[in-house]
């Protein structure tokens, strides 16, 4: 289904500029990636920059779910810098070959709470989670429920490739209860709990969601304690 959207041109950075008006450094970092394959939708690049550029040159603790062929970790190391604490996890044992190249790689499943907890402990905490793992709805949920409570205040949680939410092979479907966008609605309802009496859908995220951003097909959740709203009339 997504094959028809494959880029057939030669200049990736130029395509990102033409389509999205973005010529930031991350476009060149992605386009010039060598030796280790990285596969991204072109419109992700300006979105990554929008939400993650503030972490560049810092000791950000960055966890990527899904290592694949190692190119993504290489891209993040080049973008975030040498100070970043960069970890990737993958269920495929062959990904252990990338351990120590651009960051640390640990082998285990994203729906294993004990494994996730051990990785976060080893990282010394986590500021950014990027879920590019199995794309199965139950796995996305399992990771979010374990990792979001451990995400640092002010942190960023990104889930990408959510076109899978509409595919039965990934436990999704337009009307499927497990479609992750139903969870997004529940999170948004919790954000607005002051204005209704339904109660909390996601108690593990209570009082710690300051923003939810939905892009095609990527969701970004920003963690911080939102202040109580205040309004006034000024004349």
Characterization of the model:
- This protein is of the alpha/beta class.
- It has a single domain (about 5-220), classed as Vaccinia Virus protein VP39 (Rossmann fold, 3-Layer(aba) Sandwich), CATH 3.40.50.
- It contains 7 helices and 7 strands.
- The chain has helices spanning about 10-20, 25-30, 45-50, 70-80, 115-125, 135-145, 180-190, and strands at about 60-65, 85-90, 105, 125-130, 150-160, 210-215, 220.
- The chain has a 7-stranded mixed beta sheet, sandwiched between helices.
- β1, α4 (about 70-80) and β2 (about 85-90) form a beta-alpha-beta unit.
- α1 runs antiparallel to α2 and α5 (about 115-125) packs across α6 (about 135-145).
- The longest helix has 12 residues, at about 180-190.
- The chain is globular and about 55 Å long.
- The protein starts with 11 loop residues before the first helix and ends in a 13-residue tail after the last strand.
- The mean pLDDT is about 95.
């Amino acid at each position: 289904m997504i094959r028809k959207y494959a880029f057939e041109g030669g200049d990736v950075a130029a395509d990102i500029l033409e389509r999205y008006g973005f010529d930031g450094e991350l476009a060149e970092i992605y386009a010039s990636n060598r030796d280790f394959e990285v596969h991204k939708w072109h419109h992700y690049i300006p979105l990554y920059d929008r939400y993650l550029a503030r972490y560049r040159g810092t000791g950000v603790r960055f966890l990527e779910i899904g290592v694949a062929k190692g190119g993504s970790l290489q891209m993040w190391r080049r973008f975030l810098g040498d100070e970043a604490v960069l970890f990737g996890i993958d269920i495929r044992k062959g990904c252990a070959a990338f351990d120590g190249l651009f960051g640390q790689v640990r082998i285990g499943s994203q729906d294993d709470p004990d494994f996730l907890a051990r990785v976060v402990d080893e990282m010394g905490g986590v500021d950014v989670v990027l879920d590019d793992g199995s794309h199965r709805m139950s796995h996305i949920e399992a990771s979010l429920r374990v990792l979001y409570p451990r995400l640092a205040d002010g942190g960023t949680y990104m889930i990408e490739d959510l076109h899978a939410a509409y595919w039965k092979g990934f436990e999704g479907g337009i009307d499927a209860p497990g479609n992750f966008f139903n969870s997004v609605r529940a999170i948004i309802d919790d954000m607005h709990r002051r204005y209704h009496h339904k109660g909390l859908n996601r108690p593990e995220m209570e009082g710690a969601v300051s923003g939810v951003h939905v892009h095609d097909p990527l969701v970004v959740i920003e963690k911080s304690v939102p202040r109580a709203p205040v309004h006034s009339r000024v004349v």
